[in-house]
């Protein structure tokens, strides 16, 4: 059973979120409060697995101390006014928009309780690339590596890439390893994602 503490200044929103959470047999609302004053004390006493917070327009007033084990999931009106990286560094494990559906909220609560990070797609778009992923990284890729990266984007495996470029699979592995290192990634999916963001791959 996942123990959830609901926080929302609007009583209707608070009641709605509490009712929504209660519809899932895997979730249990242990308390619902109107503000986060003394939140750390509430967490200490109630020991929730997830703190579900509707921030509305009060984003700047929100402070979370990471020393407590509960995962925090926030719902905001808009993403433009929030510091996503700061929130994640501060212990927030999920950021959703008001437009998020009820089923998505339930899924997000369960996901953050398992230790996952849940971000609205628009929040991901607002995250800056890693500092190491810059124009210098693009310039560091050789023309051959860019070719291989584009083929990764097409879903080709090492064998197919080797055949297409008329090189050995060992050489393909070497290129892929070099791409990973230069783009600071560890998987093909991450490499393709970065390639798309840097304009190297057109989907």
UniProtKB/TrEMBL annotation:
Query: Where is each HTH luxR-type domain found?
Result: 134-199
Q: Is Phosphoprotein one of the keywords UniProt gives this record?
A: yes
Pfam families, per the entry: GerE (PF00196)
PROSITE patterns attached here?
A: HTH_LUXR_1, HTH_LUXR_2, RESPONSE_REGULATORY
- Give the matching Gene3D superfamilies: 3.40.50.2300
**Top-level division of the source organism's lineage:** Bacteria
Q: What positions are modified (4-aspartylphosphate)?
A: 54
Q: Does the keyword Nucleotide-binding apply?
A: no
Q: Which residues form the Response regulatory domain?
A: 3-113
Q: Which UniProt keywords apply?
A: DNA-binding, Phosphoprotein
GO biological process entries: phosphorelay signal transduction system; regulation of DNA-templated transcription
The UniProt GO MF terms for this protein read:
DNA binding
Q: What is this protein called?
A: Response regulator transcription factor
Record organism: Cyanomargarita calcarea GSE-NOS-MK-12-04C
């Amino acid at each position: 059973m996942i123990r959830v503490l609901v926080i929302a200044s609007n009583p209707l929103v608070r009641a709605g979120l509490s009712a929504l959470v209660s519809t899932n047999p895997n979730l249990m609302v242990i308390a619902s409060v109107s503000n986060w004053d003394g939140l750390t004390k509430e967490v200490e006493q109630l020991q929730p697995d997830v703190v579900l917070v509707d921030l509305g327009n009060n984003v700047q007033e929100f402070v979370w101390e990471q020393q407590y084990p509960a995962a925090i999931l926030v719902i905001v009106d808009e993403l433009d006014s929030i510091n996503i990286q700061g929130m994640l560094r501060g212990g927030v494990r999920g950021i959703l928009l008001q437009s998020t559906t009820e089923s998505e909220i339930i899924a997000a609560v369960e996901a953050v309780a398992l230790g996952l990070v849940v971000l609205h797609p628009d929040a991901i778009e607002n995250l800056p690339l890693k500092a190491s992923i810059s124009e210098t990284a693009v310039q560091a890729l050789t023309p051959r590596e860019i070719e291989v990266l584009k083929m990764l984007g097409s879903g080709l495996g090492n064998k197919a890439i080797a055949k297409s470029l008329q090189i050995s699979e060992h050489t393909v592995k070497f290129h892929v390893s070099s791409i990973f290192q230069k783009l600071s990634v560890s998987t093909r999916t991450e490499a393709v994602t970065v390639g798309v963001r840097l304009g190297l791959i057109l989907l």
